[in-house]
Amino acid sequence: MLTRLSGWGRTSPTVARVVSPRDVETLANVLEQSRERGVIARGLGRSYGDPAQNAGGVVLDMTRFDRIRRVEVDDGLVDVEAGVSLDALVRALLPLGLWPPVLPGTRQVTVGGAIAADVHGKGHHVVGSFGDHVRSLDLLTADGSVRTLTPDGDGSALFWATVGGMGLTGVVLRATLRVVPVETSYFVVDTERAGDLDDLLARQSADDDRYAESVSWFDATATGSRLGRGVLTRANHARLDDLPAKLRRDPLAFDAPRLFTVPDVLPSGLLNRATGRAFSELWYRRSPTRHGQVQNITEFLHPLDVVGEWNRGYGPRGFIQYQFAVPFAAVDVIRRAVRRIASSGHVSALNVLKRFGPGNRAPLSFPAPGWTLCVDLPVRPGLGELCDELDELVLDAGGRHYLAKESRTTAEAVRRGYPRFAEWRAVRASVDPDGVFASDMSRRLEL
Question: Domain-by-domain residue ranges, the chain?
Fold first, then answer.
């Protein structure tokens, strides 16, 4: 069926033939019949740009591969198909007292997508990214065969090229993931309000290692002495003794309401200088410094999941999520970027600043030791020029962009930001010499 597809940012829709296979045999047949324009897998469509689009070609909707095949409680392992969402995984694991070590900012991501983007969460400084907890995966390659890959030994190069490889080495069919025990589904949260960006950076640098999860929001509209003021939120998993009596009755409860869904009728321009400043002031004021607050999963990790299709709030022109990482030594790039955004006239309300721990062995994995900053910027005139300026700041400092978020950079920027790109490209060429797996992103960035 011909379908118009876009990423979560809604910026560059294209039309492809979408196929929803139920078994591996069907998938292999589709690969064989779709070599002219290529094939790419798609999960729940939460990448912000175009890695799960394929104009004029075939897109594989993998959401029917949605079985949780086995949970080994004692060994802390779960065997799942690639179309299982992280939301479904959490719902299945929590009653068993288990938890996926890495959850990104939304649970509406499939396991296959989480591997392809090597997603990270608020705990990267402690637990790394999603690929660090994959014990094996089954990959359907361009020749129609299925290969079982592990992080070490034969096939490890292809394993790590698939982690963070944006679906371009093959179709992830199934994975075995490491999971960890938890006593409750809650977090004990410490919140600190910082008066400016230097205060925020200092607080986040001081004792992050005491927390399993850490993230800060900063005001991207404030200037002068309030530049980058923000709210630092850090937490550890709550133990049973941490809960008030009423929550101990069901300590593994999963509270995930959906309050409403944004209709697809809102105009562009609702987020502007006035509304952005008002939102930022409200968000800053509603988050006073407090310690030891008990919060549920959605409240702490996934507040946006309570609003369905929240991306529609930016209107039909959409938005870009600009995320970059730079080494710790290049922290001044964070200051310069925040200053430039705040003075640009472009407005972002949903802003994130985090610290990354060590990276992994995947050549295209985004996280590396340092700082990562993320802003959501509505599409309007002049945005491209602002992003080009930020690109040079980031790349000159040895930084990089996150492929799961970006939607407008260049092939040169990817090669500058990912020094092991040639290594990844060689593995991809060895397993898919004819370029069967292709996407709008792969053509745009010459991947």
Answer: 68-182, 186-409
